[in-house]
Amino acid sequence: MKKCFLILALVSVSFMANAQLIKDRSNGKVTMGFDIFTDINTGSKYENFDLRAINQGFGTYLTYNFPMGDSKHTVSLGAGYTCHNYYMKNAWLAEPYAHAIEFTEATVKKSKLNFHYMDIPLEVNLRIADKFKISFGAKVSFLIQANSKAVGYMYGDGHKWEVKFNNINAVESIIYSSFARFGYRSVNLYVGYQFTSPFIEGRGPQILPFSIGIGIRPY
User: Fold this and answer.
1) What is the value of pTM for the model shown?
2) What is the domain extent for residue 73?
3) Higher pLDDT, 106 or 177
């Protein structure tokens, strides 16, 4: 997660430093932004697996805006990056390369799954009284990497371990989501829903995250 927030911090500084310059050069046709959110699992229960209440993640995106006639409303198509983190309670992923993913009960200080995606979003942007903005759309996301990390007494030998795996089996390579933003000036409320679990059905938990958080569009 530290890696995710480091990327977010660098992107944020870059956005704020170059927002006006890009806006002037693109004549307002390009939009950049980022969102910080938490995921709430709406999927079915799974043996030895449960998520904690807060599962923080973030996304960033760049879109090109197509005007809707002579109005200030636009339709946007672009590209982005999303990082989801799912924190498990009292369980960890001991065998990430198995055909079917199962979780093992253990005393853990931290246990999480981490998914990185490249997104292609399509959205409609409505501008109300110039300062208020409503956006809604959908996106298809392609998996870049899936990994896991656990810190705790997983092996029952009295020693504290830190175990990382840089790959997880039985994951979906493509997922689908919908989202909406309700904004005032550059700040907005972000909500999203993922229709596809990150795991292949029948081979892992069916995590269907509802995301809620805040976002910033510098212009």
Assistant:
1) 0.86
2) 2-216
3) 177
